[in-house]
Amino acid sequence: MPGVSSGGGGGGVGTAVSSPPRPFRPSRYVPVSAATTFLVGSTSLFFCFTCPWLSDSVSSIVPIYIAVIFIFTLANFCMATFMDPGIFPRAEEDEDKEDDFRAPLYKTVEIKAIQVRMKWCSTCRFYRPPRCSHCSVCDNCVEDFDHHCPWVNNCIGRRNYRYFFLFLLSLTTHIIDVFSFGLVYVLNHRQQLDTPHAAVTMAVMCVAGLFFVPVAGLTGFHIVLVARGRTTNEQVTGKFRGGVNPFNKGCLKNISHILCRAQAPRYTGRPYMHQKMEVQPPFLRPCLTEAQLEAKILDNGIQNDQHSTRQFKSGLVLSDTAGCLFEQFSKSSLDQMESQSADAEAPPPPKPDLRYSGLPPADTEESSLLTEAPPTPSMFKYRPPYSSPGRNHSALSHSNKMIRGESLDSPCPSILKSSRQPSYRSEPSSLDGVTLVGGGVGVRRGGGERGEGSGGPGGAAGGVLGGVSGHSLAGRSYTSYPSSLVLSAAGSRSSSLRSAQIAHNPLATLQSEGTTDTSYKSLANQTPRNGSLSYDSLLTPSESPEFESAAHELSPQKPPGPFPSSAKAGQPKVVSPSSPLKGYTSPFLSAQIAQQREGQLLQGSATFSSPHRAYLRAVSPPPPTSPRPPEAQHLIQYGQDLSSRALRNTSSLSSSPGARLLEPPISPPPRGLSLSKSTAYTGETGSQYKLRPTGGGTMVVGGEVGGGHHAPQ
Amino acid sequence: VPQTHSLQDLRQQAAVAAKVFIQRDYTNGTLCQFQTKFPSELETRIDKQQFEETVRTLNNLYAEAEKLGSQSYIEGCLACLTAYTIFLCMETHYEKVLKKIAKYIQEQNDKVYAPRGLLLTDPIERGLRVVSFPMFRTSRAGRRNAT
Predict the structure, then answer these.
(1) Less Cβ crowding at N or C end of chain A, within 10 Å?
(2) Domain limits for position A253
(3) Which segments show compositional bias classed as Gly residues (chain A) (predicted)?
(4) What ipTM was assigned to the predicted interfaces of this complex?
(5) What is the model's pLDDT at position A601?
């Protein structure tokens, strides 16, 4: 339907985007069934066996009173169970584009003079509003998330917390009533305890007494929470333990806020009202003042505006520099590579130059990259066309493949793959990003030299450098190594390890991503490099997603791969490793691009020995070294992390980008080698892992990069 | 001059060039308020005052929806007394205000934003997290043919 509708995202959509259908899990229904059975069953028995005597002997009001309380309990129970807790619909893709690679994992917002962090939800694709949390059981972000209650089999959030709280209160009251009146009955029938009525009453009393302790405890707990204006989630995670709760309005106001607030609307399942708007040019324009006109003249255009208005924090300077540097390198290296890598196919037209020429600011570059459709076959040709799990595989095999220059495989699959990792924004990825930076730096410095790379990483505290610098640096460091993990920290790690090795073509690593496994395996004449390559290939997986994502962004074509939707969806977030860089607000995209280019260059250079070497040395001029060390450090650590991950795990982390990166990174032939090497490193670095996804340069490398992504859930 | 709706007209609808997102303003907690900061992308399209006035009106409407007043209190009591069955027949106060907001947005679009190549979308569609403002491409060749 061509009409323009005001409905968000796309005309014709009937309801807001909601979570995908979940598999039926009967085990989820056991607690709620048990709760229902006990509640209804016990009360029914009580009514049948005890109440007749009570109404006769005590008063007829008693059963009525108990019935009223019971109905109230049941009503609140049903509301708590069936009511939408305040689920946020998934953000549509257009919203993603605002937060691209450079977007940080956390956004800080000030609420009543208190800094509150909003975390990026990789599943739902938006920054979680304050007090919102993602429920892993329901796989939804819930507003004012309290907890997921198994007894009602539902999340408790903004919309149904009141009913849950009243349910607890009424249930406690009901239990007390049943127990006391049952006791009255039993005390009055001490001589007839063998009758069924008495027996049933005693059984009901037992059930009531049994449930009283936990229910009353929970009720008391929630009374305290309501009085304090906290949610269970905040209490349990200790968010405001030492500090002030900005949501605390005072005891009375908190209580009235919970009990008397208007029923919040649901966000999912709303009927869209499609506004039939006739929106046609020519459009009216406001009268611009002198100042505005002046600003407009200086302005680059809306696209650049959009990019320039993005947060571009501390990493900007460095990234710019890095970006420029990379542009130079990538251009030259690509040229060289292309000329050299004409193994099987004609060299692709050198497109990168078009893209990268004269784009000093990273954001401009990014914007131009994003807005242009640069058909750079050379870059994509090295994209590994693998499925998501195979991504890492291909990454591993890149280097060889790239070297051979035969991987003209469509970058699409790989790009798609990488783009299919929406969880790039998860913490681990952010961490990854940082490490990448560090690693890259370190490696580069040690590029070609032994072990110097390892020295670099130490200083790689420069999360600030962001993806761009980090990646670019990483790429460079990899120049010394044929591994394609320029992008990934793993690469840095390997690079440091490989410092002993001859610096072949770091670009090869980048390229390796694009290569297929087969080509990788088939490379026979790469033995010495293979060893390093394999090592690098382990590291590569982490980079490949970034690589691919960057390529995806750059590629004009929409690869009609098997994952068009995922690619599209993941596109803005494609680069998972960059997400950590986001924490440092680095122009990740430019970094990625730089890396890619470097990778390609490296690969091309890998085919030669001495001339390549010379080239490499020339290529890797020492950029500002100050930021390097931290980057190298990070990269190396990241690389280590990645390698360890790759070794350990394979498929577990589907949702997190970090995991993806680390997925099956090991390609067949050198696997043995790389594995052993990586394991060695894993042991070293394993203890260092401390993921700190907070923004700023204080990335502590070494956390569970891959595994961290689970944490958000 | 916009023509009546016809298939050809619809096909000639301008395409979206960009989208601007107005984020929530959380300085007062989780109360639903949107940022009144004028995004730079709209500078060429609309007056700052107009935009701010729209957002402010929206904020006021949302504040009215969430107000802890007699309306919400009575509604809550009634709901309790009827074991929440009243929700089956009655519309909550918030929903009523949401309808009002939708009407306001429609009216603003008709009068102010569509002629300028913008469209204000109802934030409820995105969970009240963000107001999206698609900006339509203005570079269509020539004028629409009157059909």
Answers:
(1) N
(2) 27-87+149-260
(3) 1-14, 436-445, 453-469, 694-713
(4) 0.86
(5) 52
